[in-house]
Write a structure and sequence with these properties.
380 residues, alpha/beta, Rossmann fold, Arc Repressor Mutant, subunit A, 3 domains, two-stranded antiparallel sheet, 9 strands, 12% strand, globular, disordered N terminus
Length: 380
């Protein structure tokens, strides 16, 4: 067996590492420096562009003798105390061993709770922790200060990485929650935060509007696309590792079809890879079949996304896909695509941006998901 025979050729839908991680050298360098120097970081990009993979990569690379990293995904959190429970369970599990939970680090905090701890008989396995924190047991200030207390006692920096942070912006009484986070976090000396999420519109609102509590809370980074040249090298080599051949031009066409969208490049590459056997080469028909298969695989999801849309909203999407990205108020465009009044167009823009179907780049409006755009064009 070759050295890569135990690795998956292409990975999508989950975070990637090592063999399947590509590029991002400069982003890794900058993020690692922020982690080690205690700089708060805000990381934004569209869904499935590789934020989670990047952050986890940096977490593995920082010096564990100086920095403890905590990774927490709050996608399922709908309320303030759901967030607090998820946060603290992650902080306790990832900064302490099973034995240390009952030592100085967290003893005072846990004393008011009846925690449920599930421990596997395997010596090196993870343990499950359920705390049941509520307003009756702890104030938000106590909860949000725990990581700082642990960092001070351990004499190490802690970096808390919170994935899907846009959930905070969508919680009931979100502004009050954000004010509490800012008021506690901004005074911490030993803990810094890496906050990232996939709803660009919500994240931009939380961190870029002057009147918002978390405005300019940290080093703001927008994760760009991985260049085609990097992807081409990666695709060609991963085909070769399994004794299949794809040309650089064919690999580049995969990138172009999905506009270098990281997850889709991996997925389309895998589909094309799966259409040929060892010793075979990719042909044009394989590329076309790959695109068709990709669109078919996403159809149910895309159908769900357009189901609640109004006729005007559908027309606005058709307008963008037809090549119009601005000046929607021009009479000729409004009439050709039946967009309604100028005030109606303003409402259409807002609604579709909030649904994450459309994004604004400068003054231009684009479809957020390139594969959705291909599917919509095919289905129209």
């Amino acid at each position: 067996m070759g050295k890569n025979d135990t690795n998956q050729s292409f990975v999508f839908g989950v975070s990637v590492s090592d063999y399947n991680f590509i590029g991002r050298e400069e982003e890794i360098r900058q993020l690692r420096m922020n982690f080690e120097e205690g700089i708060n970081t805000i990381l934004i990009s569209p869904r499935r562009w590789g934020k989670t993979s990047l952050v986890k990569r940096v977490c593995r690379e920082v010096n564990p003798d100086k920095v403890i990293t905590v990774f927490v995904d709050i996608f399922k959190c709908k309320t303030e105390y759901e967030f607090y429970n998820t946060l603290i369970e992650a902080v306790l599990k990832q900064t302490a061993s099973k034995a240390e939970l009952w030592m100085d680090n967290a003893r005072d905090f846990i004393a008011r709770l009846t925690p449920k701890i599930s421990i596997s008989p395997e010596p090196n396995s993870e343990f499950a922790l359920s705390l049941g924190i509520s307003p009756k047991t702890h104030t938000p200030e106590e909860i949000l200060q725990l990581a700082e207390t642990i960092a001070e006692r351990k004499g190490k920096r802690i970096v808390v990485c919170i994935d899907e942070f846009q959930q905070i912006g969508e919680m009931p009484d979100s502004l009050s929650i954000q004010k509490r986070l800012r008021s506690i976090w901004q005074h911490q000396k030993m803990v810094s935060y890496c906050l990232f999420g996939s709803k660009k519109h919500t994240m931009m609102t939380v961190f870029q509007k002057r009147n918002m509590p978390l405005y300019q809370f940290g080093d703001f980074k927008f994760l760009g696309k991985i260049p085609t040249a990097k992807w081409t090298e990666y695709i060609v080599s991963h085909f070769a590792d399994r004794h299949r051949k794809i040309t650089e031009e064919q690999a580049a066409s995969i990138c172009n079809v999905v506009q270098n969208h990281s997850s889709y490049v991996q997925q389309l590459s895998w589909i094309v890879f799966s259409l040929i056997d060892e010793g075979e080469s990719v042909e044009e028909r394989h590329l076309q079949a790959g695109v068709d298969n990709l669109l078919n695989s996403q159809e149910q999801l895309f159908m769900q996304q357009i189901e609640p849309l109004t006729a005007y909203q559908m027309n606005f999407l058709r307008c963008i896909i037809a090549g119009h990205h601005e000046n929607f108020g021009d009479a000729e465009i409004r009439e050709a695509f039946d967009l309604g009044s100028v005030s109606n167009i303003t409402r259409l823009k807002t609604a579709l941006v909030e649904r994450d179907l459309v994004e604004i780049e400068g003054r231009k409006f684009n479809i957020t998901d390139p594969v959705f755009a291909l599917w919509f064009k095919r289905s129209a």
